[in-house]
Amino acid sequence: MSGDTRSEGVTVAIVGATGAVGEVLLGILADRNFPVRQLVPLASGRSAGSKIQFKGESIEVREAKPEVFEGVDLVFFAATGSLSKVLAPEAVKRGAIVIDKSSTWRMDDSVPLVVPEINPEALDAHQGIVSCPNCTTIGVVMALEPIRRIAGLKHVVITTLQAVSGTGRPGIEELATQEAAIRKGEEPQASVYAAPIANNAVPLCESFLDDGYSTEEMKLLHETRKIMGETHSGGDVDVSMTCVRVPVPVGHSATMLIETEKVVSLDEVRSALAAFPGVEVVDDISKNEFPTPRDVEGRDEVLVGRIRRDLGSDRIALWQVSDNLRKGAATNAVQTAEALIARGLL
User: Fold this and answer.
1) In the annotation, is 232 catalytic?
2) What are the pLDDT digits (tens) for 135-163?
3) Do residue 206 and residue 314 come from a single domain?
4) Residue 132: active-site member
């Protein structure tokens, strides 16, 4: 697209406009006053013909097919990876830039994996497709990056507690259905997860690999290294990870034990976190102040608290929470589009 993008506006398509992330994305585009000249909401054939609301206008959803990308400048993919794999190249072929939320392109060497507060310069090498990290990874790296910048990173032990909305509408609906069954005295039935999620915690996100790790855990490892390694030292940081699904509607949490390359004080850590764009420190033990998923729902900031020194070493322990539908997905995608504009790439 040529000319002054902010004055002319951008023709934007959203694949997955009727899904959980797609709905949040529509709201964020409106809230941040993103320069949408024309909106093209897209979904699978079963949702085509339905209507979405955007800035007071009712717009019909069209089926996502290659030909609908003609004349589109920017495409957000908030749908399945299989759809992105087929349709993202078709959108690029027709002149659009794609920002994809699925895992399809994240580890492709030719595709930037971007958190705009951390590595916006990676956008300069894009070849039409830009990938957003996993919703868990984004919150984790937002908390790690300020510490990496002042002290370097050697090893991080992470346990995540992930909301059911990370699985989209099916996860949200399964939790609600199981909670209703329990209230009736019935046994909850699991289909989305490997075990009932209501009143429970399931230490498996997605599927297990032969080495005993889950696919979600390996995403956290490889994506963290790619984001920090593309433009900064830190791509070889060791990450030990366990991902757990918990009966929380929205808001991914993580506890981290961080070994840095040089010892820094807790005051330095708090100051670095508080000064970092998009991070807020909520950490006052005298008032029992710490972040929870309820605190972060509907917010774009990554909240960090429980900052303390490991009792047996110089490692730093902390607790991090973020809204997985906003900063973990839709907000990061819109911020990436804003960064493309700011860098003259869109």
Assistant:
1) no
2) 999 999 999 999 999 999 999 999 999 99
3) yes
4) no
